[in-house]
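As the next step, I selected for study one protein, both as residues and as discrete backbone shape codes, as given directly below:
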Amino acid sequence: MGRETYDYLPPPSLFLLGGIFIVENGKQKGIYFKASERELDLIKQKMALAGVRNMSGYLRKMAIDGYVINLELPELSEGVKLLRYISNNVNQIARTMNSGGTVYPDEVNDICTKQDEINRLFGAILEQLSRLK
């Protein structure tokens, strides 16, 4: 009696290969790994330092590129501080004017000076960012 030929079923569309979860005919493929509590805490700390909240995106970026660039620009924090200062002053001036009070030229000059400083700081930030490759 000779061997009969069988039509084998195609391989399942879903299988596990060396810890990699693969969907053959779908668009998504997943990679899963185990981490200890300490490793998970370290990953979360590094995500927080990088300012990233999406763990999947963070791990994908680290696996592909091996690094995350975290820009530390002191000019940016100084600019934010000045923006808060200006917005507080503008609000106070608006309240004074709305209540029928007078605004002193020194207050307006102070705001203009701070605005010039912000423009300089953000110009320096943009210059630094344009040099990144």
